[in-house]
Amino acid sequence: MWILFAFGSALFAGLTAILAKCGIRNTDSNVATALRTGVVLVFSWLMVFMVGAQSEIRDISAKVLIFLILSGLSTGISWLCYFKALQIGDINKVTPIDKSSTVITMLLAFIFLREEITWLKFVSMILIGIGTYLMIQKKETKEKAEDKKWLLYAVGSAVFASLTSILGKIGIQDVNSNLGTAIRTAVVLVMAWIVVFVTGKQNTVNNIDRKSWLFLILSGFATGGSWLCYYRALQTGPASVIVPIDKLSILVTVAFSYIVFHEKLSLKSGTGLLLIVVGTLALLI
């Protein structure tokens, strides 16, 4: 059953990137992250009450709570980096880097969770790495330094997304996955709004148009659905396999980026995407 939740997470995650890109066109990325997180928080706590898991909150140990909080902080940093990268970069270049967190996660799972790295996993890591490199290469002349800021944010997103998976795996072992997701989301919300106020962007909320509001809300719902599926899968399945499946959301993102933003893949980028998919699917063998 965990594999179905993992694929569900990939579908919703792919939709999240597209909807978020639409919502942050005319909105500060930090403000957009904070607003989206509010939607995810409401969604996640509704699920907690629907499954009757709210009473379990008093049974959560201090250790589990610490890991959930750390996972939430990592998620918050990853989101802030990811949506900043989306705002200033192309989806077809930002998303592959974010999805490369698969490789980092497998390494961290080996170190901290003692999940074995077989020869097949090693080959998959190589394919995903090469595929990511091919997808972010440009045919045109070299980018200016200021145009490469999206790359730094995208790499930051990948690193902290990997930490999120490992910390989340440890934190939800002895707690209902819906409750764990809700607690983590609350941490992300607090962190996101702190960043908004520190950067002095809170007043820009009044300037958000209705269309952007709609896409931000829909993006929040998509994220909520992805998280609930993802952490339900993590609770019973291996992190080194679930994370790669979740990263197949890149196929959904690329398809919709072509339809919505008319972002086309070059031959090199298409080859890179193929390698990423092959490497990811090989992990399921």
From TrEMBL:
<dbReference type="InterPro" id="IPR000620">
    <property type="entry name" value="EamA_dom"/>
</dbReference>
<keyword id="KW-1133">Transmembrane helix</keyword>
<keyword id="KW-0812">Transmembrane</keyword>
<dbReference type="Pfam" id="PF00892">
    <property type="entry name" value="EamA"/>
</dbReference>
<feature type="transmembrane region" description="Helical">
    <location>
        <begin position="64"/>
        <end position="85"/>
    </location>
</feature>
<feature type="transmembrane region" description="Helical">
    <location>
        <begin position="30"/>
        <end position="52"/>
    </location>
</feature>
<feature type="transmembrane region" description="Helical">
    <location>
        <begin position="117"/>
        <end position="136"/>
    </location>
</feature>
<keyword id="KW-0472">Membrane</keyword>
<dbReference type="GO" id="GO:0016020">
    <property type="term" value="C:membrane"/>
</dbReference>
<feature type="domain" description="EamA">
    <location>
        <begin position="149"/>
        <end position="284"/>
    </location>
</feature>
<protein>
    <submittedName>
        <fullName>4-amino-4-deoxy-L-arabinose-phosphoundecaprenol flippase subunit ArnE</fullName>
    </submittedName>
</protein>
<comment type="similarity">
    <text>Belongs to the EamA transporter family.</text>
</comment>
<feature type="domain" description="EamA">
    <location>
        <begin position="1"/>
        <end position="136"/>
    </location>
</feature>
<feature type="transmembrane region" description="Helical">
    <location>
        <begin position="182"/>
        <end position="200"/>
    </location>
</feature>
<feature type="transmembrane region" description="Helical">
    <location>
        <begin position="212"/>
        <end position="233"/>
    </location>
</feature>
<feature type="transmembrane region" description="Helical">
    <location>
        <begin position="150"/>
        <end position="170"/>
    </location>
</feature>
<dbReference type="InterPro" id="IPR037185">
    <property type="entry name" value="EmrE-like"/>
</dbReference>
<feature type="transmembrane region" description="Helical">
    <location>
        <begin position="239"/>
        <end position="260"/>
    </location>
</feature>
